[in-house]
Design brief:
The complex is a heterodimer. Chain A folds into four domains: about 180 residues, Up-down Bundle (Multidrug efflux transporter AcrB transmembrane fold), CATH 1.20.1640; about 80 residues, Alpha-Beta Plaits (2-Layer Sandwich), CATH 3.30.70.260; about 80 residues, Alpha-Beta Plaits, CATH 3.30.70; about 170 residues, Gyrase A, domain 2 (2-Layer Sandwich). Chain A has 16 helices and 22 strands. Chain A is globular, with a radius of gyration of 33 Å. Chain A starts with 5 loop residues before the first helix and ends in a 10-residue tail after the last helix. In chain B, the strands form three sheets. A four-stranded antiparallel beta sheet of chain B has the order 3-4-2-8. Chain B has eleven helices and nine strands. Chain B folds into two domains: about 210 residues, Up-down Bundle (Multidrug efflux transporter AcrB transmembrane fold); about 100 residues, Alpha-Beta Plaits, CATH 3.30.70. By secondary structure, chain B is an alpha+beta fold. Chain B is elongated and about 90 Å long. Classes of the chains: A alpha+beta, B alpha+beta. The interface between A and B is large, with 98 and 93 residues.
């Protein structure tokens, strides 16, 4: 009696061994490191790596390990002093097109990393950093869209030769088009329904004059919202790259919010400054009368300027602005129906369309360039990274203009409101281009609605205190269980320890974020995980009191307690799942550890302890149980 | 070692009227306090700005307050946070659109008396400041520990979502218990849970403890814990209904509660042990969370004995309701009239 078949033990081993393995990475500390990533279109490749290694070699800085992957390069150093020196050297060597970020990298050995073994992912409340929740001002985006439609309505009515009195945006929402009489209104309706089907029309009358009240259809409104969000996401990603943060997070939350997490950042004012920056687009004509080479070597002709192209080459543009990103309404990647090649569809507003028509009509066969421009405003810093002060004692701010030609296609035809850019190499290039175009279009305003910054000292305190309370709580429970249930208690203690290991392993394996409330969840689980064992052991004692044999008592104890344990845990799990769906950040962390703890504890407390108890007592005559 | 060596025979059910009185009193006091005093909502719910800094020496609150007033933070609430070197400043939510700029301005105002400006700082290391042109960067005398800014819209949403989350949890539990046991048991357990939540909230209001997001999470965890306790008792009740040939409903309830009593006490003890560890060692941030759980575990243990089962009895549960085979027929009979 009370013997487990071999396969059950094998099953247990199959859980325990990987559990141990994936918990192990947390035992190794962290190495100071430097992480290099490319900004925008720049990629870190072998040649960049060579340059880095050469620069470090010349500076006499030794590194421990270099690794290169899709996201960039990572270098590890022995101590923070070399790390700092290396960062300065690399920043100088690589310039503005690469981000050189200080980082702490897990010192997990390679063989562990190669099987996916990584330490737990700590939340910002444990490692310090900035968390922003930003909200796109959808109302603002809508107002702007309506403003744009005012122009579009005027020009399409004018083009269709429909007479109207006024077109204006109504402050309460919608666009009001006033006509002299009903006949005009009817022809106006016909034109608008044909040209601008995304508008919904309603007849009204004001001051004795017939009007049409145009509102944006819900479907179109949704698209505007989505566009505004996408646009801001792209812009934020680009800027976050420049903050020089290792492992930043930019994530959509709901349909109008964006979460930005910047681990390790302490200067929130600077972070806000950079994130709040705006980008624009400028469309200019390529200067094809002058020779690029002579412009590069001798002098740039007046009225023109040399620009850097995204692909690394240089290009000569006429300085005169054709139209700007304010006139760009939308940009989307797609596949051309006829050629089947990747294209980017661009939509302009009425003003942009008018200019586009005029300019492209005159310049068929020539090239037009789209320039991405971002104004950087930053604190001037000296060579050691300290801010520079002016006479009044305040920091000196410098403004820098970053300009990059993102595309320069040949004009094939006279273009208007909607046109497409062809000749792209791949669909991913089309997507990249569309993203950049959108990021530079007139931005929907975005606002920080939540900020949570944890300084490094508090983060460290949180880890220390969290660890200490897990440890002490754990020890207290161990002592209690040992004293109360003796041998059975010892088995329960082993199960509890295993449970802790499994929680850590699951957290590490799935890279779920461990937050301070998450640590509290682990502490709580430790207290509650013994519940299953208490239930079983009390039941066994009861059976013994009722005069059952020790073996039968063990058997019945486990059997009877099982359904109770499952019921009790499922209900707690329901609460945890609700919590997970409701919570943000830290609270989610609590729900996660609680859920994992409940599930692993069922395994360790029921199957695990039974296995050991069976090994000790099973299959022989037993007079007394040590319980 | 055993706390209860012999099977106890406490007549819990005879105490149920007293228990109802005690619970009702506690709930009424709690609700009155909730209505009159309300909850001491933290900035998670009200919106606002909170900055925690630590100085390299003791500071006087008045001095900090004066400096902040000079910088036009008239509405700042300044208090010590743990030691006389740690200061917490709170600003209420403002209607204008200054929003997140406020927290940066606040940090600047706190650093101003020391004439220091943040320089580049390394991840995980203390913040470095300079005190003027050309000086070397040293550790800032005012170290930022924590900055929280919550916009009013976020707070409002959270209050709504928090309330909804509790309702969803209760409904989910109601359904599960009704499915696994019987509707009377479902109602009994949910009444016990509402009882726990109301008393915990009432105590938070009465003692004027801060009600923050972690506290709300703790209350949801209390729901889970207290239910755990209740389910264990109910499970035994179900078993005994099927097993004990004699004895009326009250006797069966009593026997079940007595049989599970050692386990109820032990689990509460171990949970309270770890919660105490968390309360004492977990640090200030987790304090409210631990407090809510401790209150909840104590109240939850009480309610699973004195509230849940009496409610089931009051709803008129019979032996037939718990019989697996006859159950369906009994259900139909109830549905017919």
């Amino acid at each position: 009696m009370n013997q487990y078949p071999l396969w059950k033990y094998l099953l247990m081993l199959a859980v325990i061994l990987p559990g141990l393995l994936y918990a192990v990475p947390n035992l190794y500390g962290e190495d100071p490191g430097v992480q290099i990533t490319g900004v925008r279109s720049f990629k870190v490749d072998e040649t960049v790596l060579d340059r880095m290694e050469k620069a470090l070699g010349e500076g006499g800085v030794r590194w421990q390990k270099v690794s290169l992957d899709g996201s960039g390069a990572r270098l590890r150093f022995v101590d923070t002093e070399t790390q700092l020196k290396a960062k300065d050297l690399l920043q100088r060597e690589l310039g503005d097109n690469y981000t050189v970020a200080l980082n702490l990298m897990p010192a997990t050995p390679d063989w562990l990393t190669s099987i996916g073994g990584v330490p737990m992912y700590l939340g910002l409340d444990l490692r310090g950093g900035v968390h922003f929740l930003m909200e796109v001002d959808v109302q603002g985006a809508l107002t702007r869209a309506e403003d744009r439609y005012v122009g579009d309505l005027r020009s399409s009515l004018r083009d269709a030769k429909v007479r109207y009195l006024t077109v204006r945006r109504v402050p309460s929402g919608g666009i009001e088009i006033k006509f002299r009489d009903n006949d005009q209104r009817e022809s106006g309706r016909g034109t608008i329904e044909r040209e601008l089907p995304e508008l919904q029309l309603k007849d009204e009358e004001r001051q004795g004059k017939p009007i049409l009240l145009a509102t944006i259809r819900p479907q179109q409104f949704e698209e505007i919202t989505k566009f505004a969000l996408d646009q801001n996401m792209t812009a934020l990603r680009n800027r976050v790259d420049e903050l020089g943060v290792a492992e930043p997070v930019v994530q959509q939350q709901g349909d109008r919010r964006i979460v930005v997490q910047l681990p390790g950042v302490q200067d929130t004012a600077k972070a806000k400054e950079i994130l709040g920056r705006t980008a624009t687009l400028e469309v200019m004509m390529v200067d094809e009368e002058h020779d690029l080479q002579s412009a590069q070597t001798t002098s740039v002709p007046p009225g023109s300027k040399l620009f850097r192209h995204r692909n690394g080459s240089q290009i000569l543009l006429q300085k005169r602005l054709v139209y700007s990103g304010d006139n760009v309404v939308d940009a989307a990647a797609g596949i051309d129906n006829q050629t089947g090649g990747p294209v980017v569809y661009i939509t302009l507003d009425a003003r942009g369309a008018a200019i586009n028509q005029r300019i492209t009509g005159k310049n068929i066969g020539k090239r037009m360039a789209v320039v991405y421009i971002e104004i950087k405003s930053e604190t001037k810093r000296d060579a050691d990274g300290r801010p520079v002060f002016n006479d009044q004692g305040s920091e000196v701010k410098i403004r820098r203009r970053i300009e990059e030609v993102i595309t320069a296609p040949v004009i094939r035809d006279q273009l208007g409101k909607r046109f497409q850019i062809e000749g792209l190499d791949s669909i991913s290039e089309a997507q990249d281009l569309a993203l950049l175009l959108r990021a530079g279009a007139l931005a929907a305003p975005i606002e920080i609605i939540e900020e949570r910054t944890v300084g490094p000292s508090l983060g460290k305190d949180n880890i220390d205190q969290g660890f200490k309370s897990v440890l002490i709580g754990f020890i207290l429970v161990l002592i209690f269980m040992l004293a109360y249930y003796r041998l059975f208690g010892a088995v329960a203690c082993a199960a509890l320890m295993l449970n802790l290991v499994l929680i850590v392993a699951v957290l590490s394996l799935f890279q779920a974020t461990l937050t301070l409330p998450g640590v509290a969840g682990i502490v709580l689980t430790v207290g509650m995980a013994v519940d299953a064992n208490v239930l079983i052991f009390e039941r066994i004692r009861e059976e013994i009191r009722n005069g059952n044999t020790p073996q039968a008592s063990i058997h019945v104890g486990y059997d009877r307690a099982l359904s109770t344990i499952v019921d009790a845990n499922v209900t707690t799990l329901i609460a945890a799942i609700v919590l997970f769906n409701f919570g943000t950040g830290p609270i989610k962390g609590f729900a996660i550890t609680l859920s994992i703890g409940i599930i692993t504890s069922m395994f360790t407390a029921i199957l695990g302890t039974r296995g050991v108890i069976n090994l000790i007592y099973g299959g022989r005559r037993v007079q007394r149980l040590s319980i | 070692m055993e706390i209860l060596r012999k099977q106890t025979e406490i007549n819990f059910m005879s105490l149920r009227r007293v228990a109802v009185g005690v619970s009702a009193l506690a709930i009424v006091v709690g609700i009155v306090s909730l209505v009159i005093r309300g909850l001491n909502y933290g900035i998670d719910f009200t919106g606002g700005t909170l900055v925690e800094v630590s100085y390299d020496e003791s500071v006087r609150i008045e001095a900090v307050r004066d400096k902040l007033n000079q910088a036009d933070f008239d509405d700042a609430l300044v208090q010590y946070f743990g030691t006389s070197r740690d200061i917490m400043v709170r600003l209420p939510a403002r209607e204008d659109d200054t929003g997140a700029k406020l927290s940066s301005g606040l940090m600047e105002a706190l650093r101003k008396p020391y004439n220091e400006t943040l320089s580049q700082s390394r991840q995980g290391a203390a913040q470095q400041c300079v005190t003027g042109a050309g000086t070397a960067a040293i550790d800032c005398r005012v170290q930022m520990r924590r900055v929280e800014f919550v916009g009013p819209q976020v707070g409002k949403e959270l209050t709504e979502k928090g309330g909804l989350a509790m309702i969803y949890a209760l409904i989910g539990i109601l359904i599960y218990v009704a499915w696994r046991f019987e509707w009377r048991f479902a109602i009994g357990s949910v009444v016990a849970l509402i009882h726990d939540v109301l008393i915990t909230l009432g105590l938070f209001s009465l003692l004027h403890l801060e009600f923050s997001l972690p506290v709300l999470a703790a209350i949801l965890a209390v729901i889970g814990y207290s239910l755990n306790d209740t389910i264990v008792v109910f499970d035994r009740v179900r078993e005994n209904f099927r097993k004990m040939r004699r004895g009326n409903v009250l006797e069966i309830m009593n026997r079940s509660i007595n049989q599970t009593l050692p386990r109820t006490i032990l689990t509460s003890l171990t949970t309270l042990l770890v919660l105490l560890a968390l309360f004492i060692l977990g640090g200030k941030v987790i304090h409210g969370f631990a407090t809510a759980l401790i209150i909840g575990v104590v109240v939850g243990t009480y309610s699973s004995i004195f509230v849940a089962s009496p409610v089931v009895v009051a709803l008129g549960v019979t032996r037939e309701d718990m019989m697996p085979v006859k159950k369906e027929g009994a259900d139909q009979e109830r549905a017919e009239p």
